[in-house]
Design goal:
mainly alpha
Length: about 80
């Protein structure tokens, strides 16, 4: 009696719940309409890219000035400073 129940439980786990088999993903529920682009998404993508480039250049300039400051500090030969 217990063996058929175990087989039935194994088959149920292999098949899965009946409601999950027939569901569709929300990402493919409708086809994209290329006649009317999503301008909000396009603007968001471009503005995010521009903001990241600005941050990249800003960080690069800060790194260069810090490097130059440390180079000057390393080559400083004053005896009264240390």
């Amino acid at each position: 009696m217990a063996a058929p129940l175990r087989r039935g439980k194994g088959l149920w786990l292999a098949v899965g719940a009946p409601g999950l088999v027939l569901t569709r993903s929300a990402f493919v529920a409708r086809k994209p309409n290329y006649d009317r682009p999503n301008w909000f998404g396009v603007g968001l993508a471009f503005s995010t890219t521009a903001a990241l480039w600005v941050l990249l250049f800003k960080q690069h300039n800060e790194d260069v000035t810090e490097y130059e400051r440390r180079q000057k500090e390393r080559h400083h030969k004053c005896t009264g400073c240390s």
